[in-house]
Amino acid sequence: MGRRWNEFDDWPEQGRGGKRRASVLWPSIVAGLAVFYVFGIWTGAAIAHPSRSNVVAYLPSPNTGGSSTNSGANPSTSGTSDSNVVTNIYNATKDSIFTITAVSDGSAKSGPQEDVGTGFLIDNKGDVATNAHVVGTSKTVNVAQGNHTYKGTVLSADTLDDLAVVHINAPASLQPLQLGSAKTLQPGDLVVAIGNPFELTESVSSGIVSGLNRSMSESSGHVMNGMIQTDAPLNPGNSGGPLFNAAGQVVGINTMIESPIEGSIGVGFAIPIDRLVQLEQQLISGQSINHAWLGIEGMDVDSLMAKEMHLSVSTGIYVTEVTKGGPAATAGMKGDSNASKLDSASDSADPFKILKGDGDIIVGVDGKSVATIEALTQIVNQDSVGQVITLEIIRNGQHQTVKVKLGKWPSSQ
Q: Which residue spans traverse the membrane (predicted)?
């Protein structure tokens, strides 16, 4: 039955000395299932799976105590076998891929902790891209390549997009990697990942594009859309590293795995490089990235839910709650009057028997029909703070329109 999933736990401490922890997001993959889930959303939705043993995890290390049009390293792969392609990409790019180590300030009970991930050079000015969860709250990090270590200054970190840029005084001999586009990818395409899994530096793995446009929810409730799914083996420490296409262009930034064993089982995810290209200059200049916020929680409607809750439609997004003082609440949207009882219910409770069924149902945005939270969040994520959107809703069986001025995510205020 339906389940509202909002529990996010950490991986257990392990490895040398147990100095650091790796963040874990409990299952939050994708849409299109026949079961009915409850989703917690702020921009739109957190996408969750009930009754699954897998975990979706960021890819930091194990516990250890430019420009998109640059002409950087680009191996020639024409007319070669897959194994030769991987070798050529590796040899041409490895010198521009770094191990990034961030040390916490020691405020944790266990004392200072290390996060170790991967980064890669994106321009000729010494700017290195990585994941925000690799650098954490650190202002400076250690950036190493081979026998060379650099002091890295964190220019900016966008936690909701999980992107960060670190600046180093890189020698002119280092070539930035060539950035491509995830828009050219197709399922089945060869991809290559280079990074530092389990601190095994300069490791390479390869696989194929297993899926495109996946949606992954974060602990904040924000949804990352357009993710690349790959079976190229990824493990803790690969975070922030490049995912290459067969032409040796960076098409993604490795960031998550889904696994019941906290290691690779062939389901990994990368942020499309297009998002970094879009935000690159803002991140390099140290600007904060603002994200649009709708301020609701909801769940996808289907025929069984409609029957059980006596709803007038069998598709749409049922609004369980609106955030007090948020954009949707300010616009007059209404959640289910029994939502507070759902919040206090056990995970095994059937939401259909708890919810009253008097919440708004969103069926359209700006004249376009929407049937799922995933579709709603994709639209909202592309909008700007302060933008006014028109929601088509059903309230008490009647179609209405509500204009909502999108706010700014509370975490970025």
A: 24-45
Among the options 123, 127, 158, 162, which is catalytic? 162
For CA atoms 231, 232, 237, 240, give the dihedral sign.
negative
Catalytic position from the list 49, 123, 127, 133: 133
Please name the residue that has the structure tokens 């259909």.
Answer: 352
Q: Does 57-257+266-289 carry CATH code 2.40.10.120?
A: yes
The pLDDT of residue 374: 87
- Residue 215: C-alpha distances to residues 30, 355, 382, 391 (Å): 5, 26, 14, 22
With a pLDDT cut of 90, the percent of the chain lying above it is: 64
CA distance 273 to 179: 7
Q: What does the alpha-carbon distance between residue 291 and residue 410 come to, in Å, rounded to a whole number?
A: 9
380, containing H or E segment: helix 373-382
**Across 57-67, average pLDDT:** 45
Supply the pTM of this predicted model: 0.75
Secondary element (H or E) of residue 400: strand 398-405
How far does CA 121 lie from the centroid of its chain? 21
CB neighbourhood size of 130 (10 A):
29
Catalytic residue among 23, 156, 239, 264: 239
Which amino acid would we find at residue 121?
Answer: L
Domain boundaries in the chain?
57-257+266-289, 293-412
Q: What is the pLDDT of residues 292-346, one digit of tens each?
A: 999 999 999 999 999 999 999 999 999 999 999 999 999 999 999 999 988 888 8
* CATH number assigned to the domain covering 293-412: 2.30.42.10
Sign of CA dihedral 69, 71, 76, 81: negative
Nearest to 22 by CA among 259, 251, 245: 259
Q: Beta-strand (E) ranges in 44-202?
A: 55-58, 97-103, 114-121, 127-130, 140-145, 148-158, 163-167, 190-195
- Do residues 128 and 157 lie in contact, with contact meaning Cβ atoms separated by under 8 Å? no
Q: For residue 364, give the 3-state DSSP assignment.
A: strand
239 carries an active-site annotation? yes
| 3-class SS of residue 351 | helix
